[in-house]
Write a structure and sequence with these properties.
The chain is an alpha+beta fold. It has helices at 32-45, 56-62, 87-99, 179-188, 212-225, and strands at 3-4, 11-14, 26-30, 76-82, 115-126, 132-133, 138-139, 145-146, 148-151, 161-168, 171-176, 199-205, 231-232, 240-244, 246-253, 271-284, 287-299, 308-310, 315-321, 329-333. The strands form 4 sheets. It has an 8-stranded mixed sheet. Strands 1-15-16-17-5-4 form a 6-stranded mixed sheet, sandwiched between helices. A 4-stranded mixed sheet has the order 6-9-14-18, with no helix packed on it.
Length: 342
C-alpha cells in the first residue's frame, strides 16, 4: 500500500545523489525526478532552471548527476509538453502502449499554457535461482525483527554472489548477478540476441560518507582497487549470507519548490503548481522490482576465513547499468522502517 513520505519518521526521499546522509536514517533516491527536471530544462526552458528562491535542491538538480543515457531506453518513458498539445493524453497513451499501465498521478491540467514534465521508470530483475528464506527473524540495528533471505549453506544461489571486497563482518561489498535478466530482456524485445547494458546489484555494508554520492563513489573506488574482484561465496566452508527483505511504496511531494516562480527569460510568469515522485521497490529471494514515476506541473501566473555477510546494520544498495556514470536507484538502509517486518 502506498504511503506518503511525510508519514515516515526515519525515511527521506533524495531528489539528487548529492544529498546529505545520516547513518540511522533511510535515504531513497530514484532518477525519475532528475529526468523530469532535465527535460524541462532542455526541451522547454532551454537553459538551467532558475527559481525565485535559490534553494539547495535547485543547485543539486542543476548538477545533473543522472541523465537519460544512464538508463536503458527500453526501461523508461520521459515526456514534456504544453496542455494545448495534448501532453496528458500522450503520456497516458505511451504508458499503455509501452508498459501496459496507467499513470499513478491525477493530472489536473486544464489550461492550454500549462506545462507538464513526466518520467516513468520500470525494472524487473529476477534471480536465476531463488535464494533461501530464513525461517527465524533477525534483528536489524534498531532491534526490530525483520524477514530475511540469502544463503544458509552452499547451494546454487551462492553462484550469483560475487565478493568485490571484504575487510571484516561489518565492512564488505557484494555484487549480485542475474543471467536470467539478460535472457528475459532479449525475449521481451522478440529477438534471439539483444546486446544490452546489463544491470548490477551492489550491496555494501560500509561506513557512509556525508552524502549518497560520496558513499557510492567510495564503494566504487574500493571495488576498482580490490583483490576480491572475481571471488564468489565459498561453498566449502559455512559462509553465511543474510539480507533483510526490502519493500516500500512511497509517494513524495516536493513542497519546498511548489508555488515558486521561474527566473528564466520568457518563463517568469510561470509557477510550479505541483511536484510529486512515487517510488515502489521490493528486494527479496526472487529478485528485485522497481517502478518509479515523477512529474512537475507548471502553470502560467582477505585470507581463507569463514566470513559472514549479514546485513544487520546500516548498508548501501544501488542499481546501475554497467556503462552508466551513476546509479538509477540508490538506497541507504539506516533502520527497519522500510524493511519487511517479521
Amino acid at each position: 500500500m502506498q504511503i506518503m513520505s511525510s508519514q515516515l519518521c526515519k525515511t527521506e526521499i533524495a531528489p539528487s545523489l548529492d544529498f546529505a546522509l545520516h547513518s540511522d536514517i533511510n535515504l531513497v533516491y530514484s532518477g525519475t525526478f532528475q529526468i523530469v527536471w532535465n527535460q524541462l530544462a532542455d526541451e522547454i526552458i532551454k537553459s538551467p532552471i532558475a527559481l525565485a528562491h535559490n534553494l539547495p535542491i535547485v543547485h543539486a538538480l542543476n548538477k545533473r548527476l543522472f541523465e537519460k543515457d544512464d538508463i536503458s531506453a527500453n526501461d523508461y518513458l520521459a515526456m514534456v509538453g504544453f496542455g494545448r498539445d495534448g501532453i496528458v493524453e500522450k503520456i497516458k497513451q505511451n504508458l499503455r502502449d509501452r508498459f501496459n499501465r496507467e499513470p499513478g498521478f491525477d493530472f489536473q491540467m486544464v489550461l492550454p499554457d500549462d506545462i507538464l514534465t513526466y518520467a516513468y521508470l520500470e525494472k524487473s530483475i529476477p534471480f536465476e535461482t531463488n535464494f533461501d528464506v530464513f525461517d527465524e527473524p533477525f534483528s536489524f540495528s534498531d532491534n526490530i525483527p525483520v524477514q530475511s533471505f540469502g544463503v544458509i549453506k552452499g547451494d546454487a544461489a551462492a553462484d550469483q554472489v560475487q565478493i568485490l571486497d571484504y575487510s571484516h563482518a561489518d565492512d564488505f561489498i557484494l555484487k549480485f548477478s542475474s543471467p536470467m535478466f539478460a535472457q528475459w530482456e532479449a525475449q521481451r524485445e522478440g529477438v534471439k540476441y539483444a546486446p544490452k547494458i546489463t544491470d548490477e546489484i551492489i550491496l555494501a555494508k560500509v561506513t557512509p560518507g556525508s552524502t549518497l554520492l560520496e558513499t557510492v563513489e567510495y564503494v566504487r573506488e574500493r571495488i576498482q582497487a580490490s583483490k576480491y574482484s572475481k571471488q564468489m561465496l565459498d561453498s566449502n566452508v559455512p559462509e553465511i549470507l543474510q539480507i533483510p527483505k526490502i519493500d516500500f511504496d512511497i509517494l513524495h511531494q516536493y513542497s519546498e519548490i511548489e508555488g515558486l516562480s521561474f527566473l528564466n527569460p520568457n518563463f517568469q510568469q510561470y509557477r510550479i503548481a505541483q511536484v510529486l515522485q512515487a517510488i515502489k521497490f521490493r528486494l527479496d529471494e526472487t529478485g528485485a522490482k522497481l517502478s518509479s514515476e515523477g512529474f512537475m506541473h507548471l502553470y502560467l501566473g582477505a585470507s581463507k576465513q569463514i566470513r559472514k555477510f549479514i546485513f544487520d546494520k546500516p548498508f548501501l544498495v544501488y542499481f546501475r547499468e554497467e556503462q552508466a556514470r551513476y546509479p538509477y536507484l540508490v538506497l541507504w538502509i539506516g533502520n527497519s522502517e522500510i524493511l519487511v517486518r517479521a
